[in-house]
Amino acid sequence: TGTSVLICIRQYFVDEDDTVPQKVVVQKNSRRGVHFRRAGPRQRVNFESDEVKACIVSCGGLCPGLNTVIRELVCGLAHMYNVNNIFGIQNGYKGFYSSNYVAITPKTVNDIHKRGGTVLGTSRGGHDTKKIVDNIQDRGINQVYIIGGDGTQKGAYEIYKEIRKRGLKVAVAGVPKTIDNDIAIIDKSFGFDSAVEEAQRAINSAHVEACSAENGIGLVKLMGRYSGFIAMYATLASRDVDCCLIPESPFYMDGEGGLLQYVERRLKENKHMVIVVAEGAGQDIIAKSIPASDQLDASGNKLLLDIGLWLTHKIKDHFKSKKMEMTIKYIDPTYMIRAIPSNAADNVYCTLLAHSAIHGAMAGYSFTVGMVNGRHAYIPFYRVTSTRNKVKITDRMWARLLSSTNQPSFLRQKDIDEAREADRLTNKPPLPPVANQNVAKAFDQSASASSNGEI
Ligand SMILES: Nc1ncnc2c1ncn2[C@@H]1O[C@H](COP(=O)(O)OP(=O)(O)OP(=O)(O)O)[C@@H](O)[C@H]1O
Ligand SMILES: O=P(O)(O)OC[C@H]1O[C@](O)(CO)[C@@H](O)[C@@H]1O
Ligand SMILES: [Mg+2]
After folding, report:
1. What rounded mean pLDDT belongs to the chain?
2. Looking at the whole model, is its pTM more than 0.90?
3. Could you give the number of structural domains in the chain?
């Protein structure tokens, strides 16, 4: 029943049939396409306030805004739904079974949004579905809020499936987090704007250093394991960058049209230049000169070789061989851009995401929450975990970057053909997991009765 919903949100109920389309740019005769449930408070909720026992966990790398999401989950549950039984899970997934659960209240989280990091702690690895769900069951938790990136959302999906298998009345709400902005479907992840803003400071320093030297080069490495969004947006925002290298756009060093030739040309024209490189860029070309170690982190993510350092040496060697005077300063602000508190825009975004997650969980749904074309929606887990959001080098945004920096695209016809083929494949919607069509629908009105999430 909806009796526990407070007066303040009653007048803003979302119609159960409201949907958010995945694609807004369509053609006249396009099919209707995939739609998601619109997020927001429902007239009918599935939990009484005093019945709710909620927990919150944060996993993966840091991201500006984590504490804001945690704060707003706690305050939103307490203020909008009168829920006061809320626990923090410490240090990521493993905290479900290896640490004490910590009771949290609006008072204890009151000021945390002003701090970077996560007050709950975070970690990689340690996802043991059975142990996690055993603990959820034993402790009588019935709402699980999981904040984390692509790996975390995969873990949330596993927890959700196990909960379904056991027939528990537990809602699982994923709040997507990653400064790499690599989570599929959603417009952008929280903390991304803050990270791009902070990256400006590094780029400015690189520019100052480059301008103050004879043939000065400032090289900045930014995060972005598989997706170069931070590098692309930080470059577009700055206007001081002459070259941006991202994992999605292959480049080569030597010969006609290569990076070294471009650097040389720019120095001759301008006497200085700034290069921004995403950490995942050029891994294939470094691997040719340094044997790849194939080391993985605790979550199974490949540890990357340092493209910034490698480029610095290559560029230095090139100019030495040409007997051309130059100076290169390498700046690696990696952890500085993600360890900050979120900016004002991200704080608002985090608040809305937390509220949307609460409304969905109170209605009994399990989902990843996210903004899709400017509207908040409940997205089935498998949709966000089956692909990764990447910069499309065949798209207009990358073209805008190329025209802003005036750099060559470094692409060969083969690279363009491969990118087009990849676009074609990613535009094909992923099929729901065959073995369990019900799970793929992803929304539970209650733990036992499922309703179709995509409309
Ligand atoms: N396929 C998977 N199934 C179950 N759990 C997973 C899976 N992939 C990752 N996880 C778990 O999710 C947690 C976070 O994963 P990971 O370290 O890859 O970070 P992430 O959530 O992708 O965030 P980010 O990449 O932005 O730092 C880890 O505890 C990891 O064990
Ligand atoms: O050193 P850590 O904590 O594993 O984090 C590094 C990784 O985290 C990310 O920022 C993703 O959150 C990647 O860009 C980066 O490779
Ligand atoms: Mg990840």
Report:
1. 91
2. yes
3. 2
Residue 164, pLDDT > 90, answer: yes
- Is residue 50 annotated as part of the catalytic site, yes or no? no
- Residue nearest atom 3 of ligand 2, based on CA coordinates: 61
Predicted pLDDT of residue 320 = 97
Are residues 146 and 210 part of one domain? Answer: no
Are 167 and 297 members of one domain? no
Give the pocket of ligand 1 (CB within 6 Å).
59-61, 92-93, 124-127, 148-152, 154-155, 158, 178, 180, 299, 301
Q: In terms of residue numbers, what domain contains 266?
A: 194-336+393-411
Please state, in angstroms and rounded to a whole number, the distance separating the CA atoms of residues 338 and 192: 9
The ipTM (two decimal places) reads 0.98
Task: Centre a 10 Å sphere on the Cβ of residue 454 and count the other Cβ atoms it contains.
Answer: 20
Shared-domain flag, residues 360 and 402: no
207-221 b/e with 16+ CB inside 10 Å = b? bbbbeebebbbbbbb
pLDDT at 447 (0 to 100):
29
CB 60 near ligand 2, within 6 Å: yes
User: Is the predicted pLDDT of residue 453 greater than 80, yes or no?
Assistant: no
pLDDT in tens, 34-59: 999 999 999 999 999 999 999 999 99
Whether 289 shows a pLDDT value over 90: the answer reads no
- Are both 107 and 174 inside the same structural domain? yes
Looking at the structure, do residues 108 and 224 belong to the same domain, yes or no?
no
Output the pLDDT for position 46: 95
User: Does residue 158 sit in the same domain as residue 218?
Assistant: no
Q: Does residue 323 share a domain with residue 346?
A: no
Q: Are residues 312 and 443 in the same domain?
A: no
Residues 6+ apart with CB under 8 A from 214: 271, 325, 326, 327
